[in-house]
User: What shape does this take?
Amino acid sequence: MKYLLLKHYRGGPAPAVDYGSMDQWTPEEVDAHVQFMRDFAARLEETGEFVDEQALAPEGTFVRYDGEGRPPVTDGPFAETKDLIAGWMVIDVESWDRALQLAAELSAAPGPDGKPIHEWLEVRPFLTEPPTVTE
Amino acid sequence: MNESLLRELVPSVIGVLVRRGADFASAEDAVQEALIRALDTWPDDPPRDPKAWLVAVAWRKFLDAARAEASRRGRELAVEAEPPAGPAPATDDTLRLYFLCAHPTLPPTSAVALTLRAVGGLTTRQIASAYLVPEATMAQRISRAKRRIAGLPLDQPGDLGTVLRVLYLVFNEGYGGNVDLAAEAIRLTRQLVALTDEPEVAGLLALMLLHHARRASRTGSGGRLVPLGEQDRSRWDTGLITEGVTILQTALARDRLGEYQAQAAIAALHADARSASETDWVQIVEWYDELLLLTGSPVVRLNRAVAVGEADGPQAGLAALADVNPDLPRYAAVTAYLHERAGDLEHAAELYAEASRAATSVPERDHLTREAARVRQLLRP
Assistant: This one.
């Protein structure tokens, strides 16, 4: 079963720990954080559970169709949208419990003073192919 | 030489290497490498004796790897460089490989991957594309599985139940990437029937054939899901149905019922009905009762309620839902259907919408959304 571990810049429940923004950390703390993320992905590849990982730039724009022959309409970027997605990891695991366990491990990435940042991650199951046998 | 003939040789070639002294993990790796080379070179330069070619190339790959490993560790090579003279023994280790690859200590996804590679003769790339994961991830999953079963002897009888579950999982995955997993599951189950003498193996094969027979009618234009009651039965494959029913009857005659035979019996009763309205629901309910006794599965209980609804009317179906766990994925879909049949359209529309939100696949979700829309249209004046 595949799950999306979604990382938000903003949105979700109130942070459990105030770890500030990364640019306020020391370079060593930033390095340790980045290394943790890299190790985590490598370990999942090793266990045969890694599918994909992507990070998104914080700035984007909203776009919509505006009728035949007209250019697309854009709006934003908005400085303070309610929810802002930072990136994601896709895992393929045996169970929901395993997905939660891995998300919790990822949430323990180190921040200031090397302490876990306890950040909230959103876990979403993928929709699959319908099974062949249904009755 | 087509690809499936080549793949059929894989388990017996692994068996030859193991009998010559290779451990299973290294033998399997060597045969995979030989297989990839065969896929590459055979179309232009087919060998006269495909099996001998595979054995020779795989054995050389194995020796190269074993030598590299031995020199890395500064040790002598443990196996003889030259294979023993004389013809290879006729014993077939394929059945042992089924047991080993679906060993109960392996998580199901690993057992599936290992079975498809070592017994099915698929390449890591094909398996990865079928399950939509990166090739490196699938390669790791397979080598981890092999590490976990390392040291288990190949000559021990195994657990047939887990083998059947693994094959059932492969079949149920359907069609992934460029690999037809349902067809592959049927091939592997057919081969297992020839190697064993258990009615449940035949029952599983019958179940697969009877469901595979409906494949063309199961999806409409644009991948739309067509439920059993609305399928164009003239598109069902009568050859597969006849074969499935014959296999099932032979198995049932041995009077050792199991869950796959019972499931196949239900599929056979559907296959037997010329139209949905001619379905023998009373007998289907009886088979669900058997299946429930055999498995106690909550999903069986849910599907039984549908059958009861058809046999004895929607109120009876709803009553049968009383002892079904409402957390099951298809619970809302079943209640929606039964309420619609009972004439409670308002409730049915809401339940179809709820069911679409709980669906676990895109075609199911779209189907249930369409059902909700259809019932809501009926409600408009």
